[in-house]
Specification:
The structure is a homodimer of 215-residue chains. The longest helix of chain A is centred in the first third of the chain and has 22 residues, at 8-29. Chain A has 215 residues and is mainly alpha-helical. Helices cover 63% and strands 0% of the residues of chain A. The radius of gyration of chain A is 20 Å and the shape is globular. Chain A starts with 7 loop residues before the first helix and ends with a helix. The interface between A and B is large, with 55 and 55 residues. The first copy, chain A, binds a DNA duplex (30 and 30 nucleotides) through residues 1-6, 35-37, 45-49, 51-52, 56-57.
DNA sequence: TCCTTTACTTAACGATGTTAAATTAACGTT
DNA sequence: AACGTTAATTTAACATCGTTAAGTAAAGGA
């Protein structure tokens, strides 16, 4: 039934209806395996209707990722209230991995799928907003640990440190998501791999005299 | 021109002709973007001929990955002759990253693309062969470093250590390959990220009294 | 000479992302 | 109150994809 006028709010509502249906399908069966027709059927519209709200499948994926980036930042928000900066940094890594492993297909969409690079100018999220930008959360915590003098003296580049921490956690999570079923490798428990990575990372980054108290 | 008899050698030759053509295309434009018809045209056959040599696109991809896994192991082979085990381990990480960043699309195919898990029984490569199995190379070196007593005393599980080292290097490389163009993050130089990761990793894994000599 | 087998090609199928052409209903104007 | 305009949606259609079925041509054996 195609009637006529649609307020901005109604348009937005249908937009998020599409996003939610698409995410659910993408997440349960992978982006490539899900068809536009299927997404549409799920919400009782025809496939072409989706193109009235998103330019193409890629744009839809982008919009979904945006809401997932927000979900990640939201799920990490509480951790930022931990008092001790080093503990905070440790917990942030743990929370990140928890999100990745609890939502592997979200994570795959966000960080492992080839897609046109994300431009902050076109995103619905605010960069450098502690409520919305998980990378900013990490960078902030790293800066605080640095300011409190916990890092080894030769570590001074906050961005570089943050990106290395990210790479540590991403390495464990993405290998787990993509290769855990691979029979070539006799995988250790994922929790043991995560814990060792955190230990190695902390030992590698922090001054020795802090370590015994903190880990 | 469809004549008749084809020796085993000739069949094998055409097989590798397909593999080479497919790899070149996959690597230059990504697996999903390349069509079977295009691969076939490249070698002057019709698309359906490929199916006489490979069950489907996935099987072709698998065969390509096999030869790339061999290429990785081969490119790391010389490193194993470095005398000092810790240096050897360090160089292996560096060589791994060098391979990943020199052949990003190979690397993506091998370790970042969703595919049915690799079963050693069906692979053309020999598991636990130092000439063919890069993971075995890593595990061996880790075992040697462990045997020589360089690891911190609480690190005793060789597989777990090897998988953590792999995750460290994979984290840097895969983030670089998938996210380097992303404008959300102000990326540091990849060489700086790699070097810091190696330093953090070594400091995190090795006993303190070895560090000053080795890094 | 003919018939089988082999290597390959052409035709065709169902499905996909996407676009162009209807269709349907509400609104503003007269 | 009738009507044309416009917006929301659908149906048809296109080009292309991976893949399968059906055909074709040539070499070898009888």
């Amino acid at each position: 039934m195609p009637p006529k006028p649609k307020t901005d709010a109604e348009r937005q509502q249908l937009r998020t209806l599409i996003i939610d249906a698409a995410r659910e399908l993408f997440v349960s069966r992978g982006v490539e395996a899900v068809t536009m027709r299927e997404i549409a059927k799920r919400i009782g519209y025809s496939a072409t209707s989706i193109y009235l709200y998103f330019a193409d499948k890629e744009a839809l994926l982008r919009a979904i990722c945006d809401t997932d980036f927000l979900a990640l930042a939201t799920s990490l928000k509480n951790i930022l209230q931990i008092a001790h900066p080093v503990e905070r940094m440790h917990a942030l890594g743990h929370g990140y991995a928890e999100f990745a492993l609890a939502h592997p297909n979200h994570y795959r969409m966000m960080f492992m799928t080839e897609r046109t690079p994300c431009d902050p100018a076109e995103s619905s999220l605010q960069q450098n907003n502690a409520e919305q930008d998980a990378y900013y959360q990490l960078k902030t915590v790293v800066a605080e640990v640095h300011a409190a003098g916990y890092f080894r003296v030769d570590l001074q580049d906050v961005d570089l440190i943050a990106q290395t921490i990210w790479a540590c956690m991403h390495g464990v999570c993405s290998l787990q998501i993509n290769m855990a079923e691979d029979k070539w490798v006799q995988w250790s428990d994922i929790s043991a791999r995560l814990q060792l990575m955190q230990t190695v990372m902390m030992r590698g980054l922090l001054r020795e005299d802090n370590l015994k108290d903190l880990i």
